[in-house]
Amino acid sequence: MFKRVSGTKDILPEEISVWQRLEEISRNTFSLYNFKEIRPPLIEEAALFNRSLGETAEIVQKQMFLIDNKDETYALRPEATASIVRAYIENNLDKTNGFVKLYYIGPMFRLERPQKGRLRQFHHIGCEAIGSQDANLDVEIISLADNLLRNFSIENYKIRINSLGCESDKKKLVEILKTSLAEKLENLCPECTARFKNNPLRILDCKNDACKRIVSETNISENYLCQGCKEHFQKVKTGLDFLGINYEINPHLVRGLDYYTGTVFEISQKDLGAQDAIGAGGRYNNLTRELGGPQIGAIGFAFGVERLMLALKENIRIQGENPVYLITLGEPAKLEGLRILNELRKNGVACDTNYEDKSLKGAMRKANDLGARMVLIIGDNEIEKGTITLKDMGSGEQREVKAEKLINELITEIK
Ligand code: HAM
Fold it and tell me: Tell me: the pLDDT tens digits for 174-203?
């Protein structure tokens, strides 16, 4: 028997209403901010990610699903920011639209070691605003993330922010870190010893206890930020305070991807255990230029949908999607039943019946399981009299109505 690939999930019908609800809330919320949906392909040239995320990024080094095709190597997208910037440049969105706000919902792929909240195929709900350096945009983006979480009814989350500054500030930050870690090298884990050479910033989010302790002792203040970046970050903080958004400043928050510059943020939820980041984002002011486009500011974030699902205390169950359930007894009733279902659906009433030849009792149980509010019963008797028996599942009341009056009566009943 075939099994699903490790780290992937079947999203089953009983969960799907919650997924659709999250998607609907996202679409509505994004449109309040004038974001438009974009759907780039799931495969890209692998080099796009090497260039954007950086050769030393963990995702590029270890986690890409690669597909070799003749002289080219494709990758299943591990994230969407690089694809969207590629699409922005390739489709000349800068010339036709200038500043754009784009959102996306879809699967991402990372060859990680699966565990709770960490999958190999997972989903992002994310957005990218491309074409502005304005600090108020950072405030809008962080408040959008905050509003989305409220609208999802997720509680107990924390927003942490930091600024990496511009390219030369980032270099300064690396130097400060290297200087303060140089004497403690032998106490770092083997991976961090390697990171010290090729990607020292990654040491800041190592989960190893010894590394965490060493990192907590390093003194990183905002001194590596140039005047412009310091002022930009100050404006972001002032704006967030002005909107009453709760956040914490964390000078150790650096994010693992090369493209980040300036403001970065991460949102964690306290009930999730080891994988507690439900979303993250930041500015990437040099990525469009790096990928061959103009030098323009950009910022975005992405939520991990599976982690949002874990953080949802009470799943938003959607009751009674099929408010009407039809039970037919005998062959002539089955044919009449098809006509009734057809009429109901044409009139916008969601309904269903069973095709499993269940007894009346079994069919009633099924109607109950589906959360039907009304059950219609047709047997030989009803066919003869031209009626339909209507049972209200809430009150248990039962009555007969004339077939031609059914639609009108039902529509008023279930409104
Ligand atoms: P990221 O932090 O790599 O950022 O991913 C964003 C979120 O996706 C994480 O906070 C987490 O909730 C979820 N996630 C990541 N990996 C997994 C996994 N293996 N299984 C389940 N969930 C996962 C980005 O991808 C950036 N593109 C975000 C961004 C957009 N920055 C600017 N714009």
Answer: 998 898 888 888 899 998 998 898 889 889
